[in-house]
Amino acid sequence: MIDDANALELFRFADPVQSVTLQVACDAPMVAGEDRYYAAEIAVESDFINGTVGLHISDADLDEWGQCLAALEADEGAEWPPGSRSAWLSVVPEDPLEVTVHDSPSTQIAVQIPVDVPTGWLEENRLRLERVRKAIAKR
Known about the structure:
By secondary structure, this protein is of the alpha+beta class.
């Protein structure tokens, strides 16, 4: 579990019925060589299912998320974070947006959530990314 006091949302795909969000703990990164990894948690909430899955993300993963947002703006799909080290998600820009959260390699369970995102969702997620980058840069 992430302490909400030290966490920021990196993304939010939400409508009145369901949502998929990711919070990043912007304090106390794990250091592995030159890389810093931050604890994060993907949360799925709906009337049908609620759950969370943890992962760790790096500065490079944040850059990759920025590229995913550009791909979604171009009506291309996105998978993030790259590699198979932890949980990940895929996003298909259809109407409604299809977000699939994959808990691999742990349980190998995947949950697909259709989300009727509101106008402006892409720009809001870009602003969230910038807030996380600024918070991490202060460390």
